[in-house]
Automatic annotation (TrEMBL), chain A:
Pfam families: BPD_transp_1
Signal peptide: none
InterPro entries given in the database record: ABC_transporter_permease, MetI-like, MetI-like_sf
Stretches assigned to the ABC transmembrane type-1 domain: 69-284
GO BP annotations listed: transmembrane transport
Annotated transmembrane regions: 12-31, 73-95, 107-128, 159-181, 202-221, 263-283
Gene Ontology annotations for the cellular component aspect, listed alphabetically: plasma membrane
Entry's family note: Belongs to the binding-protein-dependent transport system permease family.
PANTHER family to which the protein is assigned, alphabetical: ABC TRANSPORTER PERMEASE PROTEIN (PTHR30193), INNER MEMBRANE ABC TRANSPORTER PERMEASE PROTEIN YCJO (PTHR30193:SF37)
Keywords: Cell membrane, Membrane, Transmembrane, Transmembrane helix, Transport
Name the UniProt record assigns to this protein: Lactose ABC transporter permease
From TrEMBL, chain B:
GO cellular component terms given for this protein: plasma membrane
Subcellular location as annotated: Cell membrane
Family in the record: Belongs to the binding-protein-dependent transport system permease family.
PANTHER family for this protein: ABC TRANSPORTER PERMEASE PROTEIN MG189-RELATED-RELATED (PTHR43744), ARABINOOLIGOSACCHARIDES TRANSPORT SYSTEM PERMEASE PROTEIN ARAQ (PTHR43744:SF2)
Source organism, top-level taxon: Bacteria
Species in which this protein is naturally found: Tessaracoccus aquimaris
Coiled-coil ranges (or none): none
Record-linked Pfam families: BPD_transp_1
Entries under CDD domains matching the protein: TM_PBP2 (cd06261)
Protein name: Lactose ABC transporter permease
Primary site of residence: membrane
Residue ranges annotated for the ABC transmembrane type-1 domain, each copy included: 68-257
GO biological process entries: transmembrane transport
Length: 292, 270
């Protein structure tokens, strides 16, 4: 065997463990989930449904599913844009060479990412308890007369979840933008300033376009994450009041692993999540790829 | 102050407000872990003297030692395995580049789009039929090979000097030895970044351990604090101490490795 060929084979050998694991832990279950989604029955006795799309048809009549789908989209549409814009502004500020205490800002803003989703959910639950700190503070400032039952009402409970998500993930996205900013040519920003463009114009017309691929990546990652939201729904609000903050993943977990599991129906929901992730990623890539 | 100095005020103000927003819940968590439940609800923002009492109450209410141990085993084993498997794959993709490997990489990247929610039920059935419910192995295995880490290492491998590679080959070093003795030490910052990401994800993982670890004797820290808060009476001081203990390892690791983390991320995104 020539050294050339042997090296090529060595290369393939290096890839095999990783590729095999991804095949068995991601691709195979993805196919299996689709087959399961066409089956009905409880526990281990599963048969193909008649008609095959029975589970999918059932989704249309399931008010709880529609509610969880709507909730997930509310989080997605409100939270992701706010978070990405905040992350962009923060990254742009931190990229300024004359900024002082850079290390402190970066650490402070990224530190929430080191905390688990369960942990921060419980901290936020404590802060927003009816007799908790946020109500005490707002009453102390005379902004409210009565304590607000933050987690017991639909609107405010959703607000707390969105606030929590912004708290946890903004720094994470900021790091991606910072890394990308450090790789773009600073002279283009200087040139814009010399030409008399203000801070905002430079940011909008020079920095943002150069960050486009990274914005696309973070948008896709955030969409993917939001569609699978589970820990916050489970630990912060328990999905309540009356399912109005429950996410699709939370409902999927209830159906598949609690009480009387219905894995066929659960798999149909998991496939809806998969299709939504794929479609939204595709749309974002199409929109993001347009050259101006 | 000069005009240019005044111009900087909004930027610093924005950063200050956001830093306060980021740090306050963490400060609240730390301070509350030393206070009684009444003090936490009374919005006391100063350290109190109840840390030891909270600790004793926590040990009485939950098996803290075992949860810490299982979390540590899961996170360390996942990190070591993931770093080895993904770095050698990233190296393989870049250093032994070929058309076929590009196709495979594209296929693997597709896996990044598969939400875990969509594979969770079949994975549970797979491990259950293999008799691996409640096993640490079942917690770790799905987390070892991730397209994101492979991509990180592949991108970073672009900076690995090819001259060194050729020199090592002329010296008669085997391909695996080049990887182990030259590549791993040179790519230290990439490994650090990958380790931070993987350790944090593994330590903080909640849904999959919750699905596969049916027996609470094997619960991890996130499961422990979630169960603790689901009880009838919540002692907020005890709960915040448990949350703090669950968060300390990842926070310390991040603070220690953050320089290499930033360097590794910047090196990979090019």
């Amino acid at each position: 065997m020539s050294p050339e060929r042997r090296r090529n084979l060595t290369g393939w050998g290096f890839l095999i463990p990783a590729a095999a694991l991804i095949a068995v832990m991601s691709f195979w279950p993805m196919i299996e989930a689709f087959i399961l989604s066409l089956k009905t029955g409880r526990g281990l006795r599963l048969n193909f449904a008649d008609p095959l799309w029975y589970n999918y048809a059932r989704l249309w009549q399931d008010e709880t599913f529609k509610l969880t789908l709507g909730n997930t989209f509310i989080y997605l549409i409100i939270q992701v844009p706010i978070m990405l814009v905040l992350a962009l502004i923060l990254a742009n500020l931190l990229n300024n060479p004359t900024l002082r205490f850079k290390g402190f800002w970066r650490t402070a803003i990224f530190l929430p990412c080191a905390v688990s989703l369960v942990s921060y959910s419980l901290v936020f639950r404590t802060l927003f308890a009816t007799d908790g700190f946020i109500n005490d503070m707002l009453q102390g400032l005379h902004l409210i007369d009565q304590p607000v039952n933050w987690l017991g009402q639909t609107g405010t409970a959703r607000f707390v979840i969105i606030l929590g998500l912004i708290w946890r993930w903004t720094g994470y996205n900021m790091v991606f933008y910072l890394a990308a900013l450090q790789n773009i040519d600073h002279s283009s920003i200087e040139a814009a300033k010399v030409d008399g463009a203000g801070a905002f114009k430079t940011f909008w017309y020079v920095t943002v376009p150069q960050l486009k691929p990274m914005i696309l990546l973070t948008a896709i990652m955030s969409t993917n994450g939001t569609l699978q939201l589970f820990d916050e729904s489970w630990n912060l609000t328990k999905g309540g009041p009356a399912y109005t903050t429950m996410t699709m993943s939370h409902y999927l977990y209830e159906l598949s692993f609690q009480k009387n599991p219905n894995v066929g129906y659960g798999s149909a929901i998991s496939y809806v999540i998969l299709i939504l992730v794929a479609v939204l990623a595709f749309v974002q890539m199409k929109v993001g790829d347009k050259r101006d | 102050m000069t005009r240019t100095k005044w111009r900087k005020v909004p930027g610093y103000a924005f950063l200050s407000v956001f830093a306060l927003f980021s740090l306050f819940p963490l400060y609240f968590m730390i301070v509350s872990s030393t206070n009684t439940s009444q003090d936490v609800l009374g919005s006391r923002l100063l350290p109190g003297g109840n840390l030891i009492a909270n600790f004793q109450a926590l040990i009485g209410a939950a098996d803290l030692g075992s949860a810490m141990w299982y979390s540590a085993v899961n996170a360390v084993a996942t990190t070591l395995a993931a770093l080895l498997v993904c770095s050698i794959a990233g190296y393989g993709f870049e250093i032994y580049h070929s058309k076929g490997k590009d196709v495979l990489m594209a296929v693997l990247l597709l896996a990044m789009m598969i939400p875990f929610a969509a594979t969770m039920i079949p994975l549970f059935r797979l491990f259950a039929s293999a008799g691996m419910v409640n096993s640490t192995f079942a917690v770790i295995l799905p987390a070892i090979s991730t397209p994101f880490l492979i991509l990180l290492f592949r991108q970073a491998s672009r900076n690995f000097p090819h001259e060194i590679l050729e020199a090592a080959r002329l010296d008669g070093l085997s391909e695996l030895a080049i990887f182990a003795r030259i590549y791993i030490p040179t790519m230290r910052s990439t490994y650090a970044a990958a380790a931070v990401i993987t350790f944090m994800t593994a330590w903080n993982n909640f849904l999959w351990p919750k699905v596969i670890l049916l027996d609470n004797a094997y619960q991890t820290m996130p499961m422990l604090i979630s169960n603790l808060s689901a009880g009838y009476v919540t002692n907020y001081g005890v709960l915040m101490l448990a949350v703090l203990l669950a968060s300390l390892p990842t926070m310390i690791i991040f603070l220690v490795l953050q320089r290499s983390f930033a360097a590794g991320m910047t090196g990979a995104i090019k």
